Amino acid sequence: MKKKQKQIKRFIVYCEPCGFNKIVDEDSLNEFFINKTTSVSGGAPFIDIITKKTQKNKNLKRNIQVRCPKCGRGVTTKFVKEKSGDDEEKN
């Protein structure tokens, strides 16, 4: 019986203009300067026909933005999906 391992969230920090590239986990992401971002609305509010009240759509989830340590530009991180052990056994 296999034990479930705690999945580590990893992110790619890639700056296209200067070529900085690093894969970091969630804990070491704090070594970068994290830019504050606001939430993005999921759409215009609408009126619910049954309750006659205004309903808002859920906010969209945004990626973490950090500052590039080489050139200082804002860089959006991307989540790295890990392969599970089941995928490797099938191939």
Widest sheet: strand ordering: 2-1-8
Structural class assignment: mainly beta
Overall number of structural domains:
1
Q: What is the oligomeric state here? A: single chain
Keyword list:
91 residues; single chain; mainly beta; 3-stranded antiparallel beta sheet; 7% helix; flat
Condensed summary:
The protein is mostly beta strands and 91 residues long. The protein is 7% helix and 27% strand.
Tell me what the structure shows.
This protein has one domain. The protein is 7% helix and 27% strand. The chain is mainly beta and 91 residues long. It is flat and about 55 Å long.
Write the layout of secondary structure elements.
Layout: E1 10-14, E2 21-25, E3 34-35, E4 46-47, E5 54-55, E6 65-67, E7 74-76, E8 78-80, H1 85-90
Antiparallel strand pairs: 1-2, 1-8, 3-6, 4-5, 6-7
